[in-house]
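Possible regression after last week's pipeline update?

I re-ran a chain I had predicted before the update to compare outputs. Posting the input and the new output here so someone can diff against the archived version. Not blocking, just want to make sure nothing changed silently.
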Amino acid sequence: MARPGPVSEIAILPIASTTTIEQSGTTAGEAWASAEEALRNAPGCQEIFWSRWVENKDMLQMIINWDSYDHHMRYQKSPDFPGFVEKLMSVANGQPVMYHVHFTPHPPDAAFNAPALELFTTYFPASISEEEKEKWYHNFKNFMEQMIVDAEGLVAEAHGWVQEEVEHGKDKEKCKAFLCGIGWESVDKHMGHRGTESFKSSIGLLREGSLSVEMHHVVFRGGQS
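New output (post-update):
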C-alpha cells in the first residue's frame, strides 16, 4: 500500500550523449521541452529535476516531486499521459527505470539544488525484515552524522526507502532499496572526502547487511513547478 503524503518519482532514462535535449531549436530539444512542459502541467506535479549522470552521459536522471503517489498514478491513467510518453521516448535510447521514494525531508530541495548531487542506492535482499531495515537505518544515521561533522563542502542530504521492489544486477534480481541524495559544493569535494580516513572507517556501516551500493553524481536542472 502506498504511503500517504508527498512522494518523489525516480526515473532513469537511457539517452545517447549525442542527443541534443539541452539545445533549444533542435528536434530533440523541442521534444524534450514539450515533454517537460506536459509533465509540469500535470495535476499534483510539484517540481522536476533532471540531469545527465556526470559519470555516464548516456544516462539521464529525473526526479519528479508529486503531491502524492495517487496523483502520479492518476496522471498515468489520464488522456494526457500517452502524448507525454511519446515525446519522452522520441529522445530515449531504451526503456526507463522508474520507482518512488518518500524523501526525508520533503521537499528535498536543499540537497537537490546544490552545485553537485551524489545519489547512492543501497540494495538489500527482498526478504529483508523490518527489524533488519531498522538496524541498517540506525547505521545509516550514524554514518551521516559522522559525515556532517567531518566532510568539507557537504550542503544537505535527503533520503528514503524505495516504495517498490527494484531489479538489480545482471540477473535482474528483485530487491529492496534505499536512496540517499547528498548535496555537495562540487563533485571534487565529495571525491576528496572519500579519500579521508573518516570515510574509509565509516563506509562499512552502509555495506553491513546490504547486497551492494551504487553511486553516481548529477548536476540538476529544473526544480520549479
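Follow-up from reviewer: compared with the archived run. The first helix runs from residue 27 to 40. Marking as no regression found.
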